[in-house]
């Protein structure tokens, strides 16, 4: 539900995505990235996604996304320019940070949006002069500050569950590691071998 609420915040408040818009979603096979990509597609937006390996690109393609860029082997800025015929994008959602933010910012159309909601590669420097010059709407999205998240009556949750029931969100099985292999889980995460959620399961201790 946290991932669903994060996607709700990004698509409903940070930049209310509309049909026909061109959106760039970084880490599109990640936990939040998957929901963002599926929801954006259902809205009718053109979804361009980035991933960190060939295997993740193949995974995104099997999910029906055909505009997928492997940033470990491809220059995503050049690819986006080619895909959009150099017209740019309406919005990007970035959870990576330093490695992607500035290049993504330069792809946004004047008056478009730049949404930063994570910084896995480090917090980027924000080029405020460029943002003001291009009249870009910059949002640093924080879930704890989202009114719909703070509203404990759960008014946003029915929409999320509706997307699950209507199969917009294709629920994925999490990756499960024994707690004793936590070091391997961290290593796989750092090497971009994982997709979606990771669960560490402690050993079951039988009572004496």
Give a topology summary.
Layout: H1 2-14, E1 22-25, H2 31-43, E2 46-51, H3 54-62, E3 68-70, H4 76-83, E4 89-94, H5 101-105, E5 108-116, H6 128-133, E6 137-140, H7 147-150, H8 157-165, E7 175-178, H9 182-190, E8 198-201
Parallel strand pairs: 1-2, 1-4, 2-3, 4-5, 5-6, 7-8
Helix pairs in contact: 1-2
What do these coordinates show?
There is one protein chain. With 208 residues, the protein is an alpha/beta fold. The chain has helices spanning 2-14, 31-43, 54-62, 76-83, 101-105, 128-133, 147-150, 157-165, 182-190, and strands at 22-25, 46-51, 68-70, 89-94, 108-116, 137-140, 175-178, 198-201. Helix 1 packs across helix 2. The longest helix is centred in the N-terminal third of the chain and has 13 residues, at 2-14. The model has no long low-confidence stretch (mean pLDDT 93).
């Amino acid at each position: 539900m946290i991932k669903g609420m994060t996607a709700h915040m990004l698509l409903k408040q940070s930049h209310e995505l509309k049909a026909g818009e061109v959106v760039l979603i970084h880490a599109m096979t990640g936990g939040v990235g998957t929901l963002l990509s599926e929801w954006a597609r259902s809205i009718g937006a053109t979804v361009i996604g980035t991933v960190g390996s060939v295997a993740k690109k193949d995974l995104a393609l099997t999910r029906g996304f055909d505009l997928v860029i492997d940033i470990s082997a491809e220059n995503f800025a050049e690819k986006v320019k080619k895909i959009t015929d150099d017209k740019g994008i309406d919005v990007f959602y970035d959870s990576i940070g330093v490695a992607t933010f500035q290049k993504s910012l330069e792809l946004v159309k004047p008056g478009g949006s730049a949404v930063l909601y994570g910084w896995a590669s480090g917090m980027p420097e924000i080029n405020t002069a460029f943002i003001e010059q291009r009249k870009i709407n910059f949002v640093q999205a924080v879930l704890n500050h989202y009114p719909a998240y703070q509203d404990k009556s759960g008014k946003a949750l029915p929409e999320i569950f509706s997307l699950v029931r209507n199969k917009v969100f294709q629920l994925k099985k999490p990756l499960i590691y024994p707690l004793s292999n936590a070091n391997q889980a961290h290593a796989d995460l750092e090497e971009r071998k994982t997709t979606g959620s990771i669960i560490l399961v402690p050993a079951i201790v039988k009572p004496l």
